[in-house]
Structure to design on (226 residues):
DNA sequence: TCACTATATAACTAATATATTATATAAGTT
DNA sequence: AACTTATATAATATATTAGTTATATAGTGA
């Protein structure tokens, strides 16, 4: 059971989503990740800490560098949660629409606006 | 372009995720959605407002009731964002692992710890 | 050793979010 | 009309978050 709270919360920030998108193309160091943004390095370090805490990235040590990459497990976990919701929705959607349509038809018959 | 910030932020709250899971089984009113939780009705109303603002649910009017259901489009949008990230990750994952393994082998050869 | 580079942490500020209670609104019932 | 039910809104307290600047830590290389 991964931490969905932390993971979705981490994803709610556009800077962090951009960092993840960048990491989808491969490993990168903190400064490399910081480069495209107009915010300071400490701010990026904090974003990375959030992403790591949420299980969305992992880091390794290479001298003074801390290269980051995506954590497959964490991303898969939230993907699965959403997939489950989406599937349940799809399963019920047509039926639900039918029910609602029927209710509307009934209202019409009863002379409601 | 849906509002990913709002959508992921909405999903970061466990009460709201539980509400969505409940709605995956079909429409429900505010009080029905509030029933399982130990928080007040106004708090639930706010959660629903957040979910609606994020495009994850829609509401209709039925007398004094405001039945809610999942908004297929919003859920599909974030699902797709995650699917894209996941796919990019999968595409790079094996190759990346190979690169990292190669780097480690090289380090070993160079006598690093 | 000294200076430089890469990153992290601390202290602080400003903005945002969640919950509560109290109250308003509007529809349904008698 | 009066009472009840379903929901929303306002006011408020508290907690969390994201950013800043300043500083610390730890490798790297001359």
């Amino acid at each position: 059971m991964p931490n969905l709270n932390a993971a979705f919360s981490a994803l709610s920030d556009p800077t962090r989503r951009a960092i993840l998108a960048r990491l989808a193309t491969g490993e990168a160091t903190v400064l490399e990740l910081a480069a495209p943004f107009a915010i300071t390095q400490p701010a990026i370090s904090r974003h990375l800490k959030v992403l790591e805490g949420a299980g969305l990235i992992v880091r390794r040590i290479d001298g003074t560098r801390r290269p980051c990459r995506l954590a497959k497990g964490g991303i898969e976990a939230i993907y699965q949660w959403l997939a489950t919701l989406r599937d349940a929705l799809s399963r019920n959607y047509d039926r639900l629409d039918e029910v609602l349509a029927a209710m509307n038809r009934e209202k019409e018959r009863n002379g409601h606006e």
Residues 29-31, 41-42, 44-46, 49, 63-66 of chain B lie near DNA strand D (CB under 10 Å from a C1').
